Amino acid sequence: MMRKLLSLLLLFSVGFTAHIYARELKLEASLERTRVSPGNPVYMYLTFFGSQNAPKPDVGQIDGLRIKYVGPATKVSIINGKISKSISHTYLVIPQKDGEYKLGPYSVKYNDEIFVSAPLTLRVGNTASGMNSSARSAAVARARAAVKSTSSSPGQSSGTSVYQKQVSTADSSEGYQSDRIFVVMDVDKRTMYINEKVDVTIKLFVNNMEVKDIGYPSYSHEGFIAGDFDKPERTRDYIRGVKYDVLIFRQTLSGVKEGKYTLGPAKIECSIISRSESSRRASFFGMDNFFSSRFGTKTYPVDLISDDISVHVLPFPKQGRPVDFRGAVGQFSLEVYPQASTVKMGDPVVVKSIVKGYGNLTTVTAPVISDLNGFKTYEPQVNIKGVSKIYEQILIPTDENIKEIPAVSFSFFNPRTRKYETLEKGPFSLTVEDVANGAQRVKMVSADNTASDVYIPQEELGEDILHIKDKMGRLSVPGQYIYENKYFQTAHIFLVFVLLFMYNGYRKKERVLKDKGFARFLKAPRKARKGLNKAKLFLNRGDRKTFFDVLFKTFQEYLGNKFNLSRGNVNYQVLEKILKNITCKKEIADKIKLVFEKSDMIRYSSGSSDNDPEELLRIVREIMDYLEKQKL
Amino acid sequence: MKKVKILLMICVVVLAAPLAESAQKELTMSLGEPEELFKQANRFYLDGQYEKAVKEYEKILQMGKQSGAIYYNLANSYFKTGQFGRAILNYERAERLLPRDADVKANYTFAISMVKDKLISKKRIWGGQLFMRYYNSFTTNELIWVSSLLFILFLMVIFLMLTRTFKLRVKIILPGIILFLLLFNTATVYYKVYSLGKDAVVVVPRADVLYGPFKSATKFFTLHEGSSVTIIESKGEWDKVRRSDNKTGWIPKKSVEAI
Fold this sequence. Notes:
The complex is a heterodimer.
Chain A: H1 2-20, E1 26-31, E2 35-36, E3 42-49, E4 65-79, E5 82-95, E6 99-103, E7 107-110, E8 113-116, E9 120-124, H2 135-151, E10 160-164, E11 175-176, E12 181-187, E13 191-193, E14 197-206, E15 210-212, E16 224-226, E17 233-239, E18 242-255, E19 259-263, E20 267-275, H3 287-295, E21 297-305, E22 309-314, E23 330-338, E24 342-344, E25 349-359, E26 368-369, E27 375-377, E28 381-385, E29 388-397, E30 404-405, E31 408-414, E32 419-425, E33 428-429, E34 431-433, E35 443-445, E36 451-453, H4 486-514, H5 516-541, H6 544-562, H7 572-581, H8 586-604, H9 613-629
Parallel strand pairs in A: 2-9, 11-21, 13-22, 24-34
Antiparallel strand pairs in A: 1-3, 3-5, 4-5, 4-10, 6-9, 7-8, 12-14, 14-18, 15-20, 16-18, 17-18, 19-22, 20-21, 23-25, 25-29, 26-31, 27-29, 28-29, 30-33, 31-32, 35-36
Chain B: H1 2-30, H2 33-46, H3 50-62, H4 68-80, H5 84-97, H6 102-112, H7 129-137, H8 140-163, H9 168-195, E1 199-202, E2 206-210, E3 219-224, E4 228-235, E5 238-242, E6 248-252, E7 256-258
Antiparallel strand pairs in B: 1-4, 1-7, 2-3, 4-5, 5-6
Helix pairs in contact in B: 2-3, 3-4, 4-5, 5-6, 8-9
């Protein structure tokens, strides 16, 4: 079903297109330019109108020219409802020698019909290559012409361009020029003096094209010294309404000898990125391939070549040349600062000279001090800061009669005025003081606080070992060290024990503070001893009642503290359980019980004469001693 | 608290005992014969009788006593007699006992400049100039005392950490640093003691270093008087030595003398 529908659509399309196509079949040939210089390639277009399936015409080769097929480009236009389509085969024609060449007529066979183009004439000669008047204007003119030819191409004079795409390839070994990408080289002066700084500008124009891997330009500059390229500058320019992205390379040159020279041509290597469309033409509808072509890209390395430039390097005029002229060219100013106005004889004074301005600083030499009699000098130190060249000249007065630093002068050639100019500063007054013999200075500091050495004759010093020592010093035994000493070893071990002891004491103290029961436990024996002594005292006085009171109170308190019992809980019933837990001897437990019974008996019977206080005191002491020895 | 104080006092006394003992020894020895010999040797030196001075200084050393000044003066005497190897040897010994003495350093450097073998260089342990400066700036006993102080400090810090409240970070880092310094210093002491008797100086004008410990062995390289080597092995009358560029070979024992 789908196939049938497609077939119907196909038939309808064929019928429709047969109706609307203006089938005017013809082959046309055209050249990008008809006049070129040798080596400068030119495009030739062979365009077949009325079909996009016309094969590539065979153009062959012509002696003196090299012809390379670049590729096809197709176009469909709708003009007043009429569809016209064409295919343009592009060839790159590279002229190799001067002459007038006849290109064509070329023919192509299409639908068993032969179509023939008109012949073309290409004139090859040096007339177009010089660009002596203005390279830039010529290049722009070429660009304009190229733009014009694009807009007036067949089938596009009026109406809407549905699709146009041109794929161009070129061998990277060949130069490449087109209206969409080209290089223009320019120099700000065609006539210059030796050593004069001139600026060379090389511009890469790109119109609506993707370019990558752009290299720095290279060009011939024989007879010139070239500086480094500045960082390329990117800008945008319009040539007759056509927008170009422009990449500008700048470089400084200076001529080293007089004569006529040619700069360039400049060559820039880069790669053009092009969309692949090779398969688009094969499709009837073309839509699928159209879209797919958007995703496929090809990279074509190209060498873009500019026109060359003739320049003339002039020699310095002989007339009016100053004696101290050393080849400096530009427009400069001179500043001179002596660092001191009073110095001691033999002391250095620094004369700082600053040459500042626009010009070739490499050709600037040290300003000349007119008369250096009475001064000792060294090579000046040079420093370049921006557009200034700074010289620091050390002068050492060797004569106390010197009254001034002589004038400092600097001569240069000004290319604007075409005259030599001499700048002079000074003289500067200087007072030289005499110094006592033997005084010398070896270090000095200049204006920018950098220290520098002043070379003075080196004193010759004798060399020998230093003298012996008078004192023998502390005697020792070879190979004996302090760590072998027994006291030393003992002390360290002892120290470890001290700290362990201290730590133990600390822990005990901490426990006493935190644990009330432990605190009572610790104070129990001390308090008990005091109580027993007190009881003994009463016994000695014969006060038996108070003796028993104190004794029993001390006993109860001791047991209360020892086992952390409250005052009311200190009785034998409570203690019996505790004593069992601590595995107390039965004998001692019985004695504790006995003391409690005696206590009750004496307390409630208001003192019995049967009780032997000495014996009771002994039993209490025995119990306490036993409990103290136990690890409770 | 009283107990702690008493214990600490005992500790101080015990620690000070070795110092007192050595001071007592010094007093005893300084008043004895070595002092007289030293003065006599100095007099010989001043008179330009360097050979005699050498003998007198050597006598003190043979008595089993040493000091930096004795080695220094002896080195000077050897230098004056033209025995640069023995001079360097004794400057090295003097430097071990007087590591911060400018005179010793100056004379040692000057003597070294007389040595023909320019390969010689001070031994580098583990690399690093800072360590070498530390290693060479103290005597072995001074380093032992540093270790002792670090040990006491370590114990006290541990005690403080156990009895006071500190952040965990401090509890780890502070004792850690002290322990590291203690171990580092003790290792330095060990190395100093270990290298004693290993570092040696060539004391003969020229000595061939052979591939084996026998006279007919092939010559490997030649050392000149004053060159520093390390003795790595001994066999009979031969020492196996290593030069500063790690070349090793056998040399007669009498050609080198350990520092």
